[in-house]
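Predict structure. Input: Claudin, 219 residues.
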Amino acid sequence: MASASLQFFAFILALFGVFGDITATLLPNWKVNADVGSNIITAITQMQGLWMDCTWYSTGMFSCTLKYSVLSLPVYIQAARTTMVLSCILSAFGICITTVGMKCTKLGGDSDSKSHACFAGGVCFILAGIFGLVPTSWYTREIISNFLDQTIPESNKHEPGGAVYTGFISAGFLLTAGVIFCTSCFKKQQGAWIYPPKQHHFPSTEQESDTGYNLKDYV
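Output follows.
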């Protein structure tokens, strides 16, 4: 019962991770640059994401421009696009597989099949967390290195946006859920290896046949 409750908790974490992963992939505020200038009324907030760049004015106007050209983008943005999409796909597969393999569901057949499905879903969550953690870390490194570069003007420097933090948190949720699912299945299999089922030995009802004659019968 405790294992089923733990799996359900991991499934909730995985759901939060999937929604956060998708949200971080689509949000345009991976890096933010606030240009106040001499007048706060004309303040401009520039946001750059994986798929579009947006500008928000203090007057309430908001405009976005899609990034149509892939080859013109920096390498870290191209890699972030690919890995974040893979993370979303793997996490979605993990949700489907663990739904079948969880103990609190009636899907998946016998306990061994459900255990294997649960382990496979946990591996998908771990891979999705890694794929989500790599681009956010790389993207943050590029932002920090550009911010500390003295040759870059202040107007071209950015800070990490909300999408980066959402990606970090989602990757943590997915990694935690994957470890819990894999560990719960591994403990069950390990218990079966340590304590194998007892084999009952029944005494043979057949008596050994006399291969020779008893000498006392002839005395």
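The first helix runs from residue 2 to 26.
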